Amino acid sequence: MADSEAVTTRNSTVNDWTRALAESAGSPGGGAGTGVMLAIAASLTSMVAGYTEAEEHLRTELADVHARAGCLREAALQLADDDAAASEAFGAAFRLEPGPEREDAVHRASVDAAKASAVLGERGIDAIGDLEWLARRGNPALIADIVVAFGALRAAVTGARTNVSFDLAALTSAGATLEQIREQHPDLWATVERLNTALDRIDRLTADIDHRAAPTDAI
Questions:
Q1: How far apart are CA 59 and CA 53, in angstroms?
Q2: CB within 8 A of 38, min separation 6: which ones?
Q3: Which residues contact 144 (CB under 8 A, 6 or more apart)?
Q4: Which of 103, 109, 90 lies closest to 26, judged by CA?
C-alpha cells in the first residue's frame, strides 16, 4: 500500500495491515487492533462450530452459533476500520493549537472514539456465550482452538474497555473532573464496568477448560 491511510482490513493483506499498524501514525492503532482481535475470535468460533457435529436437538443452536460467528467476523473488521478513522480524528484534534477550537475538537473526538470502542466491546461481550457453548459442546479435538479464541476475545474486550476508559479520561483536558464525566456520559461509563465484568467471565471460562487444552501443565 502507498501509505497507512490507504490501509483497511478489507483491501489489505495481513502483511500490509500489520506494517501500517507498526508505523508511528496512530491509524490504524490499538483500537483497530482490538477489532482485528475480535475478528480472529469470531473466525475461530466459526471454525470450531463448523467442525462440530451436534446431537439432533442441539443442531439449531449450533447453526445459530456458526451464523453469529460469521456475521461477527465481518462486523468486527468494519469496526476495526471505523476505529482507525476515529483514531485519526482523535490525533488531529490534539494537534490543534491550544484554545476553544481545540477543546471542542478534543471533546468531540474523545466521545466519538469512546463510542466506537464501546460498540466493539459490546460485540465482544455478546460473543462470550457462543464460545462458552462450544467449550461445553464443541468438538473436543479443537479445545485448544477454543482457548486461543478466548485469548483473542479477551484481548478484544480488554482493548475496548481500556480505550473507552482512556478516551473518557481525555475529556479532563478541558477541565472536567472524572466525576463530571461520569455524570455527563453514564452509558459509556457503565460500558467500562460491563467490560470489566466480561473479562472476569472470560477468565473463569478459560480456567475451566485450560486443563483440557494444555494437559502437560498437570505433570
A1: 8
A2: 72, 76, 79, 80, 120, 123, 124, 127, 152, 153, 156
A3: 213, 214
A4: 90
What is the pTM (predicted TM-score) of this model?
Answer: 0.90
As a whole number, mean pLDDT of residues 63-67 equals 98
DSSP label at residue 173 = G
pLDDT(26) > 80: no
| Residue pair 146/209 in contact by the 8 Å Cβ criterion | yes
Tracing cell 501500517 back to the chain, one arrives at 20
Portion of the chain with pLDDT greater than 90, in percent: 69
pLDDT at residue 3 in the model = 46
The pLDDT value given to residue 1 = 40
Q: Which three cell numbers stand for residue 78?
A: 468494519
> Residue 187 burial by CB count (10 A; 0-12/13-18/19+): exposed, middle or buried?
exposed
Triad 35, 37, 41: Cα angle to 5°: 115
**Per-residue confidence band for 162, with pLDDT thresholds at 50, 70 and 90:** very high
Q: Please return the burial class of 78, using the count of CB atoms within 10 Å of its CB with bins 0-12, 13-18 and 19+.
A: middle
